[in-house]
């Protein structure tokens, strides 16, 4: 964060659409940015969008604090009231907000919608294959060759997804931070093809897994990455480093192990591959995997190719898990009834489609009782939950050493790529030899490794770091530092000696204030949007502290309308809609992803849009006490600080 805002210019937010003229957009308030005073600004990028045809204002922060962030990438917010520490309250039982069912007419119309799509789709296929056979050539056998695509399997894609394809895979450019620039497009053939219009639209980004806001082109992490490119060269960024190990790999693994509180860690260049290539090295024939029914596809794939038996339990249902454990332990292996060689329970720390947290305290009690091994996938929870950002174990105050295997990715909170496996040194040493990712996958590139190291150190803070100087080259690190000063108990700070000696470090990174600020801003934003939507009357899933907020739409036709209405507002809001087969058939939803880069006003903007669109689409089907939009925005701090609303 090393950028000072220039002098103000008139507030203009230009949005260009195909065949239309640019429209000016009302300014957004930045009252949360500082004190009681406020000034008007918009979703600007301070003139950093190079030659994109957009014009944005240059508005300095209205506070005694001098912000050093680019406002479009990381929103200005100096008001300490808009902070919250994400942490489970000791002595209380963990509960997710109870899932609510919509009225029967909502379910009935949703099923009727799918029925109409299916009936009309088959009728169009029947007629089309006879009147326009060229359009179905890829679905029928030709010249003795079987069709590459199954008519039945592609039916859903052709008859539903294609109709709303403008809501998916939208090309973007620039940094996916607080705001994001969409490359505008249109379709002349009902979404079969998309044609770029040549214009761009900047909107509020509420769709990226940028939980801590490290998706920045300016700042301490970006400076570190730039230095690594200068040091290791550009060629290393694109070359195939299969089997290669740099000093950065060892430093990153050591730092990640300390970050999550484990003895050792193994990093991989791809998050999906971390699960799919490591799980087969953990279990095999004669072993049993007990998996949450909503676990990620990478876990399912890894279990499938491992050859182990697999049983699933109802999502986050601890009585269901215990009943299954009793059954499988008493029955043993199929046919032979011999004891299982190994029982591995796999759960996710934060379920990205549901917004629920694994009930880790109860799982740990079951682990002591039934003696199984525990694998926790923290792809979405690491860096996003807990007072120190160490994930679901940190959130619940559980000693991570009591968990056998911790897995996570760097693509969300860390703004990088790849994943890691952490555990005991003996386990990690075995995985280095038997895991497929180490033998066959490409190694992580130096810039990505540097981003991982810099962002992790920023969250942790750095022990024994020099206190002065705005940017520290720290060439004299290492042997002169007393090792005893660096061995802090978990959750401690990052030891200075294991960081690259050439990596620049800002003061806010060294003292941990940057990471703490990001964690507390994310905690406030997540809790505020979760509770604000429920007070408006929407049905949402998940926990109050989850940065992923699923808002239920139910009817498939409402997905496209909701996404388009959000994207075409005066201040566009970029969202992600999700439906079957990623979710159950009748629970189509929009999934908001909060970030530390969002300001309180950004969340107000989302609530305002949802309030208007919710009335239009009849989405407010939730029960419980309702507040007006004005009351929610005025009492935001009180709403966030209320006891658990369960």
Task: Tell me what portion of residues adopts beta-strand conformation.
Answer: 5-15%
Mean of all residue-level pLDDT scores: 85
Rg from Cα: 25 Å
- CATH class division of the largest domain: Alpha Beta
Please give the CATH architecture of the largest domain. Answer: Alpha-Beta Complex
Largest pleated sheet: 7 strands, mixed
- The CATH homology group name of the largest domain: Aspartate Aminotransferase, domain 1
The number of E-state strands comes to 18
Distance N to C terminus: 39 Å
Please provide a written account of the structure:
Pfam families: Aminotran_1_2. Belongs to the class-II pyridoxal-phosphate-dependent aminotransferase family. It is an enzyme of class 2 (transferase). Its cofactor is pyridoxal 5'-phosphate. This protein has 646 residues and is α/β, with parallel strands linked by helices. It has three domains: 1-106 and 170-216 and 514-646, Aspartate Aminotransferase, domain 1, CATH 3.90.1150; 107-167, no CATH class; 240-461, Type I PLP-dependent aspartate aminotransferase-like (Major domain) (Aspartate Aminotransferase, domain 2, 3-Layer(aba) Sandwich), CATH 3.40.640. The protein has helices at 104-131, 155-161, 220-232, 235-238, 247-260, 271-282, 297-306, 318-331, 360-370, 392-396, 425-434, 436-440, 446-460, 483-486, 507-510, 513-536, 556-567, 600-617, 629-634, 636-641; strands at residues 28-29, 40-41, 172-173, 179-186, 195-205, 264-268, 287-292, 309-313, 342-348, 373-377, 405-409, 419-423, 462-463, 494-495, 548-554, 573-574, 576-578, 588-593. The strands form five sheets. It has a seven-stranded mixed β-sheet with strand order 6-12-11-10-9-7-8, sandwiched between helices. A four-stranded mixed β-sheet has the order 3-4-5-16, covered by helices on one side. The protein has a three-stranded antiparallel β-sheet with strand order 15-18-17. Helix 9 (360-370) links the parallel strand 9 and strand 10. The longest helix has 28 residues, at 104-131. The relative contact order is 0.14. Mean pLDDT is 85; it is low at 1-64, 237-243 and 465-485.
């Amino acid at each position: 964060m090393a950028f000072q805002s220039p002098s103000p210019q008139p507030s203009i937010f230009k949005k260009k659409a195909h065949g239309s003229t640019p429209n000016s957009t009302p300014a957004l308030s930045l009252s949360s940015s500082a004190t009681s005073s406020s000034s008007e600004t918009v979703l600007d990028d301070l003139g950093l969008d190079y030659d994109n045809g957009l014009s944005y204002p240059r508005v300095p922060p209205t506070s005694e604090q001098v912000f050093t962030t680019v406002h479009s990438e990381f929103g200005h917010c100096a008001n300490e009231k808009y902070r919250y520490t994400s942490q489970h309250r000791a002595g209380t039982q963990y509960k997710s907000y109870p899932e609510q069912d919509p009225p029967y007419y909502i379910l009935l119309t949703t099923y009727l919608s799918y029925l109409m799509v299916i009936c009309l789709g088959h009728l169009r296929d029947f007629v089309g294959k006879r009147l326009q056979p060229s359009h179905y050539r890829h679905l029928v056998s030709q010249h003795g060759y079987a069709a590459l695509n199954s008519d039945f399997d592609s039916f859903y894609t052709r008859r539903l997804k294609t109709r709303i394809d403008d809501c998916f895979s939208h090309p973007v450019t620039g940094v996916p931070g607080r705001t994001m620039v969409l490359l505008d497009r249109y379709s002349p053939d009902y979404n079969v093809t998309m044609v770029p219009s040549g214009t761009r639209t900047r909107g509020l980004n509420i769709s990226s897994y940028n939980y801590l806001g490290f998706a920045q082109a300016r700042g301490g992490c970006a400076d570190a990455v730039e230095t690594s490119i200068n040091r290791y060269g550009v060629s290393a960024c694109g070359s195939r480093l299969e089997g290669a190990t740099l000093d950065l790999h060892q430093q990153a693994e050591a730092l990640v192990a300390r970050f999550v509180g484990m003895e050792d860690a193994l990093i991989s260049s791809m998050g999906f591959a971390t699960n799919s290539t490591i799980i087969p090295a953990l279990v095999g024939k004669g072993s049993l995997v007990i998996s949450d029914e909503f676990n990620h596809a990478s876990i399912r794939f890894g279990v499938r190719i491992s050859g182990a038996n697999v049983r699933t339990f109802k999502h986050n249902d601890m009585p269901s898990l215990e009943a299954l454990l009793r059954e499988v332990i008493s029955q043993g292996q199929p046919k032979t009834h011999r004891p299982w060689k190994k029982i591995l329970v796999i759960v996710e720390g934060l379920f990205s489609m549901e917004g629920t947290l694994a009930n880790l305290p109860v799982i740990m009690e079951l682990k002591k009782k039934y003696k199984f091994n525990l694998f926790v996938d923290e792809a979405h929870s690491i860096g996003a939950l807990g007072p120190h950002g160490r994930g679901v174990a940190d959130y619940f105050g559980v000693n991570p050493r009591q968990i056998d295997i911790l897995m996570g990715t760097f693509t969300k909170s860390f703004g990088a790529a790849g994943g890691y496996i952490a555990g005991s040194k003996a386990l990690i040493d075995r995985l280095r030899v038997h895991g497929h990712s180490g033998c066959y996958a490409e190694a992580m590139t130096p810039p990505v490794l540097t981003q991982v190291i810099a962002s992790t150190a920023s969250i942790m803070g750095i022990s024994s770091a020099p206190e002065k100087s705005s940017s520290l080259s720290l060439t004299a690190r290492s042997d002169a530092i007393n090792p005893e000063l660096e061995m802090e108990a978990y959750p401690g700070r990052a030891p200075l000696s294991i960081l690259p000696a050439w990596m620049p470090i800002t003061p806010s990174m060294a003292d941990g204030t940057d990471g703490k600020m990001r964690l507390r801003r994310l905690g406030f934003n997540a809790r505020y949007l979760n509770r604000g939507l429920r007070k408006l009357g929407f049905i949402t899933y998940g926990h109050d502290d989850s940065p992923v907020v699923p808002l239920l739409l139910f009817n498939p036709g409402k997905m496209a309308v909701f996404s388009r209405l959000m994207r075409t507002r005066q201040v566009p809001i970029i969202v992600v809609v999700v439906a079957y087969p990623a979710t159950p058939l009748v629970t189509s939803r929009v999934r908001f992803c909060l970030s530390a880069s969002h300001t309180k006003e950004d969340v107000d903007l989302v609530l305002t849009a949802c309030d208007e669109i919710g009335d239009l689409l009849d989405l407010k089907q939730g029960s419980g006490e309702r507040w007006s939009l004005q009351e929610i925005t005025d009492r935001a701090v009180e709403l966030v600080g209320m006891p658990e609303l369960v």
